[in-house]
């Protein structure tokens, strides 16, 4: 049940952010649910591999390179999901920052 709530909150946040952010386009609510699922799967399977391979540069930049990895994950999700479009890398970077901050805020208020 906790997983379904997280997917629904993430999909609502993706839809809200795309509504207010100029370079992100989501076709429908069902597309935002697919985006939330694909982002979750990419964060579970692909992100740890990228973090492992880029560990020296992440260490050298004091963890700021993880923002670049998050932007790359958003771009990869853009390539996988039809109906989800991000205009540029910097838009994806800003989208990932806003999404992660808003997820943190929502997760404070949503109880298990």
TrEMBL record:
Transmembrane regions: 33-55, 62-82, 88-110
Keywords annotated in UniProt: Membrane, Transmembrane, Transmembrane helix
Organism classification: Bacteria, Pseudomonadati, Bacteroidota, Flavobacteriia, Flavobacteriales
Top-level taxonomic group: Bacteria
Pfam families from the UniProt entry: Phage_holin_4_2 (PF04020)
Coiled coil: none
UniProt-listed PANTHER family: SLR0284 PROTEIN (PTHR37309)
This protein's name: Membrane protein
Originating organism: Flavobacterium palustre
